[in-house]
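Supplementary Methods S3. Input chains for the assembly prediction are listed below.
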Amino acid sequence: MYLADSVCTRPNGRRSSGDGACASFFDRTMERPFKKLLVANRGEIALRIIRSARRFGLKTVAVYSAADARSAHVGAADEAIAIGPAEAARSYLDIAAIIAAAKQSGADAIHPGYGFLSERPEFAQAAADAQIVFVGPRPEVMAALGDKVAARRIAVAAAVPVVPGIEGAELPAAREYGAQVGYPIVVKAAAGGGGRGMRVVDEAAQLESALDSAAREAAAAFGDGRLFVEKYLAHPRHVEIQILGDNHGAVIALGERECSIQRRYQKIIEESPAPGLGAEMRAKMIDAALKLARAAHYTNAGTVEFLVEGDSFYFLEVNARLQVEHPVTEMRFGCDLVCEQLRIASGGKVSEPAAPRGVAIECRINAEDPEHDFRPATGTVLHLSVPGGPGVRFDSHLARGAEVTPWYDGLLGKLVCYGADREEARGRLVNALDEFALLGVTNNAAYLRDIIASAQFREAKLSTQFIDSFFPGWKIGQPEIDAAIVAAVITAGDALGGIPPDAASIRPAAGAERRSPWDDLRNFELWGARR
Amino acid sequence: MGRAAMKLTRVGDSREIDAEVISRDGSMIRVRIGDRQLAAEFAPNADGGGILTLDGRRYAVFCARRKDSTLVSVGPASFEFKPAQAAARRHARGLAAAEITAPMPGKVLKVMVRDGDLVEAGQPLVVIEAMKMETTLAAESAALVKRVRVEEGQMVDHGAVMIELSPSPASSLRQSARRDA
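Predicted structure tokens for the full assembly:
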């Protein structure tokens, strides 16, 4: 169903009705279309945004640091501009450099992706000052919601339930609060995120040192040591609502995502719908998210995060940007959230979506070692097998020869599977992970496979304690270790002989130019190749 | 092809693996791992890897060498092996590792020990930050901190030696007791 005022054309004039997954209830018009979009990000999300921009016929501009000169997003865009050295602080976090790149390229819109500058009001303001459309909420909205204490106040004013707690964290007040509600309690940073500046306090004696160290960590990480104190929920689930708000005052919700499975306070498996969430509870949470969004005058895509315990839910925070896990929503609603963001930014309207269908589950393949405390890993991709088949989506910037450097976060790709029901989606995801292979960068794919194949995940025994409860000290299975050892000794003995065609082709030709794309593969020898 | 037993270690696991190819007949290969004998079948694929059949299970495997490492993927699982000689040097006299090196370039956030400290296995020594993550490096065995070579706030390169360890007096004693027995 289209809006009455929709003319169903793209900026390039082609009719868009009925053209693929994006055509559903969404208005496809860009009212004041922009022409060129700068993507202020890297990795899989930069690539994903470029793909959606193409659907509107937009030209795209990539920006890249010295470490990313040969990354996939650079090649995928219509043009690419170097913005600085590898350190994020001097490249992807350099507002002046990115605005300069936008001006230089004539971009009239910027999409920030997630992470980096995506939730920095100064960046949205700098874009506005340069007459460039920022694809996201207005800077003042972002500023209000980015501060967890201010966001809590907005929630309370909108009658949205929050975790019981107190603002400010002077020792006497915190001590009194702890005595009143009982331990454990949790100390959080107003500017926090990703578990930084957060401490669980089990008893009164630990309170003072927890406040000190949390304030110090928050000041170091965010330049803001303000804290607040909340009641600690022992086994909550993390459930979030996707919202879209237009510039005309309308806000819609696109269902929920369950993101309870986390390690080090970071999500690794997300799904929609949330298993076992009743219709009444879902309706209440959606209503709360919409009330909050309206109270904050929210525009563009955002996510309202809640903790759920029993029949109660509590507002956690708003992520004023596209989420990493947005594809699970897209698969159920048959939409493209980046297209929606672009359309909203151009003045388009939102309308109530059709009912979602089926189940989608996503897992994050990270460059990390799950056998050793998720230690980050780096390296060059020597081989990549990408799974396929119905209902399987892999959002990634990886390719053979791609380098995973220590400069940025280790997200290698998102594997997302859709099914008519949860078991179909889960089965597809297990099979897809079994098809996945990545040689050259230690990663968590086998770990994710074991979790998603487990009885505990099948039975949806979900809480933020899932990993600690069911997968502490996970190790790869002995049969796979044996297979790896057999492969290693066969290779070492060169027992198989012969050079597979691929091994020959991957090695640089004699006299090849030093900066050839194959250069970094020079030190590698594939199976069976002889020196 | 001559039989040559190999001594390997998995990176991150100090246990030594003693393995060799015992015989090969076409695609059928017999391998010894420790005191176990395994019958494997390997069929190469066009993509540079192959299908390894072991104990009735089929695995898509890929293999490559990087410096002295052998990298292997078995289905979605990835492995890195090193020759045991390099590891053996570190294991000298009861030490799991004589040096704590940076696993990747990053910033030293915290140094938790000083020269001369005695540390237990598992005791955290240094915290570094890289890829937006904090990584705590701990002692793999009891040891004496010989020298701390980094300070907080310092940037380190991949492989940089951050802390030198020597055997703790207690573990040396245990070692010599075992030799005497």
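Chain A touches chain B through 67 residues (CB under 8 Å). Residues 1-27, 495-531 of chain A have pLDDT under 50 and may be disordered.
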